[in-house]
Backbone:
């Protein structure tokens, strides 16, 4: 029979904390990793997504290659590659610098790049879903191409892609769990560590699952708020 | 500068990698088939008039979609072996990691496929169901013969896209040290000191397969304009 022991979370770990403290430090890392990667992904993804829709062919092709490579290689393989391969391929001084780099920074870069490719696809489809006349009319009115993007195409496109962007926002926290594979002590890894230390696997995993659920609900709330704030009356967003 | 040495890819390692790829494909195929079956059941339950069933199906889908796959895999590697051992009286030495992985991926994917199937069913105009009912077909029969075949065609590109995601996600069985393609490639690289080459090779293989499938998905999206009722069919001539 399994012996339930929920009090385990309050017992000391032997390093001056409680197991609950481990869980919360893991949650903190997951949230931080997700948020920072999200910011990077949003900026890069918007840039690459725009690059996929500009008239210049070379820029479009380069942006396309970026998206395809990052989207078609599993995130875990990318993380391992960043960790084991990239430092070897760089010039020695730079490679050593990467090896000494904080693993959290490396993971966040990796997660950010991976997510940026997915956001780029959404931005591109958002811009393409605006019929060509939006761009043509903007240019005909005398806007330059950058102005047309800034004042006409992007404000519309971002509102259109808000729903898929919202679910991507929730995905980034889930994807951060893959970083536990490289030994980062985020939420999922703390859960595993708890199992090893306490041999109370069910309590540990139930607590971690509940925290992920709570995180997901909060992310959903945030995006609902953004959707409500940015809504333009009479302008329907894609479902 | 790093000196590449791809000679590690040879007669002794290729069969091992191929074995790993078989494990990867077995997980992908099983999770795809089982996930779609369970997903279809969940999608139909969510639309059912029996409130409790609809609520349970929705809870299932939302729970699995909120939790990272890594977490689900850990759960199943913990729980399923114990369940199987107590249910079938297996000795703890029997390796049930593969069974656990198959169950975990199938149940996890089912949540995502149920959403795709729900969207597919919603894309078929309601008039189709109404017409079938008016002709005297029971709901389930109309669902099976009229609505689902059209829905399947509409959702084919999304199903293929999800299959690509699933194929890439199988690399995560690494948590259980199951020897899938990635696990084998990593193991060979680590033992031979050629980790750089093996990781690049693994990445290239994943890329080649996923990219060609995603091209196929794009084609599928363009080639079969969704069957959306008679109006568009007539318009196509």
Residues:
């Amino acid at each position: 029979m399994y012996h339930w022991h929920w009090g385990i979370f309050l017992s000391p770990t032997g390093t001056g904390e409680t197991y609950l403290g481990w869980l919360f430090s893991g949650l903190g890392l997951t949230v931080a990793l997700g948020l920072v990667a999200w910011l990077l992904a949003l900026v890069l993804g918007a840039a690459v997504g725009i690059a996929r829709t500009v008239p210049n062919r070379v820029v479009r092709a380069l942006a396309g290659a970026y998206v395809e490579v990052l989207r078609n290689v599993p995130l875990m393989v990318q993380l391992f590659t960043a960790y084991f391969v990239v430092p070897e391929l760089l010039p020695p001084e730079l490679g050593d610098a990467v090896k000494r780099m904080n693993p959290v920074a490396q993971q966040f870069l990796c997660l950010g790049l991976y997510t940026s490719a997915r956001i780029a696809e959404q931005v591109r489809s958002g811009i393409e879903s605006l019929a060509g006349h939006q761009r043509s009319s903007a240019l005909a009115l005398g806007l330059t191409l950058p102005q047309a993007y800034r004042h006409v195409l992007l404000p519309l496109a971002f509102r259109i892609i808000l729903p898929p962007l919202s679910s991507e926002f929730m995905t980034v926290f889930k994807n951060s769990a893959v970083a536990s594979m490289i030994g980062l002590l985020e939420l999922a890894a703390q859960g595993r560590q708890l199992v090893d230390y306490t041999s109370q696997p069910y309590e540990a995993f139930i607590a971690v699952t509940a925290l992920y659920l709570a995180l997901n609900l909060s992310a959903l709330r945030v995006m609902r708020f953004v959707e409500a704030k940015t809504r333009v009356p009479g302008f329907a967003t894609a479902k | 500068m790093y000196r590449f040495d791809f000679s590690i890819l040879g007669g002794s390692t290729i069969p091992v990698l191929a074995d790993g790829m078989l494990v990867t494909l077995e997980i992908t195929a099983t999770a795809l088939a089982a996930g779609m079956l369970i997903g279809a059941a969940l999608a139909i339950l969510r639309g059912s008039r029996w409130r409790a069933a609809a609520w349970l199906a929705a809870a299932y889908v939302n729970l699995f979609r909120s939790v990272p796959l890594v977490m689900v895999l850990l759960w199943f590697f913990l729980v399923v072996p114990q369940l199987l051992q107590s249910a079938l009286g297996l000795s703890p030495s029997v390796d049930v990691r593969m069974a656990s992985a198959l169950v975990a991926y199938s149940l996890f994917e089912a949540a995502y496929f149920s959403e795709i199937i729900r969207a597919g069913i919603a894309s078929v105009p309601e008039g189709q169901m109404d017409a079938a009912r008016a002709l005297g077909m029971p709901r389930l029969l109309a669902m099976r013969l009229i609505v689902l075949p059209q829905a399947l065609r509409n959702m084919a590109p999304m199903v293929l896209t999800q299959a690509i995601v699933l194929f890439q996600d199988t690399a995560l069985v690494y948590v259980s040290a199951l020897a899938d393609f990635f696990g084998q490639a990593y193991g060979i690289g680590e033992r031979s000191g050629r980790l750089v080459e093996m990781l690049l090779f693994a990445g290239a293989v994943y890329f080649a397969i996923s990219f060609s499938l995603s091209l196929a998905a794009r084609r599928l999206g363009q080639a079969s304009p969704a069957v959306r009722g008679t109006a568009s069919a007539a318009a196509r001539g």
